[in-house]
Design a protein that fits this description.
The protein has 195 residues and is α+β, with helices and mostly antiparallel strands. 48% of the residues lie in helices and 18% in strands. It has two domains: 55 residues, Arc Repressor Mutant, subunit A (Orthogonal Bundle), CATH 1.10.10; 127 residues, no CATH class. Strands 1-3-2 form a three-stranded antiparallel sheet. Strands 4-5-6 form a three-stranded mixed sheet. Strands 7-8 form a two-stranded antiparallel sheet. This is Type IV toxin-antitoxin system AbiEi family antitoxin domain-containing protein.
């Protein structure tokens, strides 16, 4: 039964699937449409579905709508678990020159970087709901918040403090990124005091 295949795929993908995923698994997109009409699925947004009654993962939804966006700054700090501050908007970084009418609707605070910086330190991380999203690694995120004059200083200091305490920190990578992003002089005193 095709519906069972859809539910199996939903279970494998932590409760959220896209039309593209379904097609890769041999499921016709019309099956998803039919399941929405019958009340078995809910359409979160164009091309993205959850089982009826389940919650959507807002991080995955935002990134699905803005595919070129990479979670960064305060949102990345939150996803990495180094801040207790819950962002009221989503920070995403895009290639310089990218624009979307969806920024305001999705509560996105966009950041723009040249391609060299945009591609630096991109990883995949699971949200608390188990969805894989693109985010900058912790070292690139720390450099970005230190570099951004709009970052709240308390948030930045807490993030650097939490970073230094982590077992998985990579100080060599952090300082390499700091040099590339021209924040080495600004970041080094914080690291030296906290180590």
């Amino acid at each position: 039964m095709v519906n069972e295949e859809v539910f199996k795929l939903l279970a494998e993908k932590n409760g959220m699937i896209s039309t593209r995923m379904a097609e890769k698994h041999g499921i016709n997109p019309m099956v998803l449409t039919r399941m929405v009409k019958s009340g078995e699925l809910e359409r979160v947004t164009r091309g993205l579905y959850v089982k009826a009654g389940d919650f959507e993962d807002e991080f995955a939804t935002v990134q699905h709508k803005l595919r070129r966006g990479i979670f960064s700054h305060d949102t990345a700090l939150f996803l990495h678990g180094v801040t207790d501050y819950t962002p009221s908007q989503y920070d995403l970084t895009f290639p310089r020159g990218y624009h979307s009418k969806l920024f305001a609707d999705l509560l996105v605070r966009p950041h723009f970087q040249i391609s060299t910086f945009y591609q630096l330190g991109v990883i995949t991380l699971e949200t608390s709901m188990g969805q894989a999203v693109k985010v900058y690694d912790l070292e690139k995120t720390i450099c970005d918040v230190v570099r951004d004059p709009q970052t709240d200083s308390d948030v930045m200091i807490q993030a650097v403090r939490q970073y230094v305490r982590r077992q998985d920190k990579n100080l060599q990578r952090l300082m390499k990124y700091a040099k590339i992003l021209s924040v080495e002089k600004k970041l080094r005193p914080y690291i030296e005091v906290l180590l």
